[in-house]
Write a structure and sequence with these properties.
The protein has 16 helices and six strands. The termini are far apart. It has three domains: 49 residues; 95 residues, DNA polymerase, domain 1 (Orthogonal Bundle); 185 residues, hpI Integrase, Chain A (Orthogonal Bundle). With 360 residues, it is mainly α.
């Protein structure tokens, strides 16, 4: 039996009680809305399709985000970057709304606002975190009554696939350089970034990234126990896709590792991933400035692309493209850690001139 009670000047509280079911109550701004809601709940109970909404209606998005961060996100490999996304959601006015009241139209408006100032990939990551919050709430927290509003939001198209390869600063290559098929003749950008680094560790990290195609996070987690220099193997555990893998080490990689001192902690580098990115960006900027001054002193026009828009992750692209000229696809996938050959092809970017020389 439904009971409608006026509360204060502008609120009406509807309460539905039925034997065998938990009491349901909700407050509305008009009596008509309260009566309508009560009729719906009573009808669902009579038809045997009632789902308890009280938990979803009494839990705010902010509370759900806090619980998600504590019980789910903190155990993910990407816990640190996801922490910032969760904080962003908690800072919105929407976070004060109940889980049951959040609609796809609310999220679509946020999406459109974000796209004015953020890349599509950033917006997609934000929506993905919220989507998982709703999924966990439905499956694990007893909020079966709520739908996932993110599923109805059209996601922006991401067009940020990169084909950036390491360049050479040589404007007119000599005959010997043209005939040199090794990467050494064209890795001038890497050499200059290494030379411009003020870090003791960054040069070795860069060399390993270019020689092994290992990810930034995989490199900073390395311990000396993971390295077998006699067998020329580097073991990468707990990787991004969840699998361990062993990566062969080139002579260049081994020489770079042998220059490092052993630390008490056992870590090879003992540096945070974000610190690697910042150090790399600073080194690229200094290398570009030095290159421009060099061109000015020698009366040349600097290239518009040399040491421009170079990111640490581009080293993985470069390494994969180089290794593809040595190993067949199935072996290359074992080295890079890609399970899907289609994903591997995103990192394999052969230069057209190199392919043309193979034809010749």
């Amino acid at each position: 039996m439904a009971q409608i009670v006026k509360r204060g000047e502008m609120q009406w509280r509807a309460r539905v009680r039925k034997k065998g079911y938990p009491e349901q109550s909700r407050t509305f701004s008009t009596k008509a809305d309260a009566e309508k809601w009560a009729r719906i709940v009573e009808s669902e109970i009579e038809r045997g399709v009632f789902v308890n909404r009280s938990l979803a209606e009494s839990t705010t998005l902010e509370e759900a985000l806090d619980r998600y961060q504590s019980e789910v996100s903190s155990y993910k490999k990407g816990a640190e970057p996801e922490r910032y996304i969760i904080g962003m959601w908690k800072g919105l006015k929407l976070a004060k709304s109940s889980m049951a009241s959040i609609r796809s139209v609310d999220l679509a408006k946020l999406r459109d606002e974000w796209l004015k100032t953020h890349a599509p990939a950033t917006v997609v990551r934000r929506l993905a975190v919220l989507s998982h919050v709703f999924t966990v709430a439905r499956k694990d927290w007893g909020m079966e009554s709520i739908a996932n509003p993110v599923e109805l939001v059209r996601k922006p198209v991401i067009r940020n696939a990169r084909t950036r390869r390491i360049e050479s600063a040589v404007h007119e290559p000599s005959k010997e350089q043209e005939e040199d098929r090794t990467r050494g003749a064209t890795d001038d950008e890497v050499k200059r970034v290494v030379a411009s680094s003020g870090s003791r560790l960054l040069p070795t990290i860069i060399v390993l990234a270019v020689e092994t195609a290992a990810r930034r996070g995989e490199l900073v987690k390395l311990t000396w126990k993971d390295l077998d220099l006699k067998r020329r193997v580097m073991h990468l555990g707990d990787t991004k896709n969840g699998d361990d893998r062993d990566v062969p080490l080139s002579s260049t990689a081994i020489q770079a590792l042998q220059t490092l001192p052993r630390s008490i902690s056992g870590k090879v580098f003992g540096i945070r991933p974000d610190a690697v990115t910042r150090a790399f960006s600073r080194a690229v900027e200094r290398a570009r400035q030095a290159y421009v001054h060099e061109c000015k002193d020698t009366g040349r026009n600097p290239s518009d692309t040399f040491l421009v828009d170079l990111r640490f992750h581009d080293l993985r692209h470069e390494a994969t493209s180089h290794l593809a000229s040595i190993f067949p696809l199935h072996e290359l996938a074992k080295i890079t850690g890609h399970k899907d050959p289609r994903m591997l092809m995103r990192y394999y970017h052969p230069k057209a001139e190199d392919l043309a020389k193979k034809l010749a």
